[in-house]
Amino acid sequence: MTNHTNVLVPQSPEEAIASFGDGADITVVAGGTIVMPELSSGRLRPERALVLARAGLDGISSANGTVTIGATTPVLALVGATPEPLSTFASYVGDYEIRSQATIGGNLCAPPGPESPRGDLQAPLLALAARVRSAGAGGERTEPVDDFLAGGEGRLVLALEVDEPTSSGAAAVGRPHAHNYTIMAVAAAEGADGVRIAVTGAGPRAQRLPSVEQALAGGADAAAAAAKATDDVTPSDDALASAWYRARMLPRLVEQALGQL
C-alpha cells in the first residue's frame, strides 16, 4: 500500500457504512487474500482503503431455518456451521491458511481471476437462493444473490441469509497444488421452489444452469438433465484446465451433484 492511500479502519458496522459511502474511489479490505497481492504487485493503487477487520461484521446465527452470515466471517468458520452445499464448498477453498483468512463477503465479490477461477462460494450461494444485505448509493438493501452478482459492484456487503434446503449436492474436480485449486465445482439445492443448480469454474463467474433446472422440472432424470449443462455455459481455457476438459467434466459433475439430492 502506498503512502498516498488513506486507510480507514471502522470500529462498527455503522462506521463501515458511513466510511464506504457510495463506494466511489474506495477499496474494501476484508481477509485480503485477493486484495493484498494486488496491492503488493502495484496492480491496484486505491485512493482509500476500507479495512473491515474491526467493523464487527462477522458471525453466524440461525433462527427459524434461516442462517445469517456476517460478511467478514472467515471461510473456515462456514465448514460444518452452514447449510449444505455451502459448508462443503467452503472446504474446497484454497488451503487451511487461505480459509482462515478469506471471508465469505470477499469471496462473493471476487472479480474473475486473470489465471484461474475465483469466487468458489458464489455457486452454492446461487443454489441456495441466498439473499445479500449491502450498503452503498441509495442506502441499504437486501436482494437475491442472482441480482447482486449481476450488478453489485460499488456495494458493501454486510451479511448474507440462506435457508436450509430440503436436500443438497456438491461435486468438484481440483488440481493438486500447495493451495488446492478447484478447477470446477457444481452445487445443487432443493427447496420449496424446486431444484437450483450452479457451477463455478466454467466461466469468469459462477452461473446457474437454467437448462438443467428446467429439464428436472419437466421430469428428466439426473443423467438427461445433466446433459443439458453445456447449453448454459461456454467453458474457457486458463492456467488450471482447458475448455475441452471442462466441457466434458461439467455434465459428469452435474449428474454427481444431482445424484445426492
What does this structure look like?
By secondary structure, this protein is of the alpha+beta class. It has a domain at 167-258: CO dehydrogenase flavoprotein, C-terminal domain (Enolase-like, domain 1). 30% of the residues lie in helices and 26% in strands. It contains eleven helices and twelve strands. The chain has a five-stranded antiparallel sheet. It has a four-stranded antiparallel sheet with strand order 9-10-11-12, sandwiched between helices. A hairpin with a 2-residue loop joins strand 4 and strand 5 (66-70). The N and C termini lie far apart (46 Å). The mean pLDDT is 90.
Summarize this, please?
With 261 residues, the chain is α+β, with helices and mostly antiparallel strands. The protein has helices at residues 13-20, 35-41, 75-78, 86-92, 96-101, 104-108, 122-127, 145-151, 210-217, 222-226, 243-258; strands at residues 6-8, 26-29, 48-51, 60-63, 66-70, 131-136, 141-144, 155-163, 167-175, 181-191, 194-200, 207-208.
Provide key terms for this protein:
single chain; 261 residues; alpha+beta; Enolase-like, domain 1; 5-stranded antiparallel β-sheet; 4-stranded antiparallel β-sheet; 11 helices; 12 strands; 26% strand
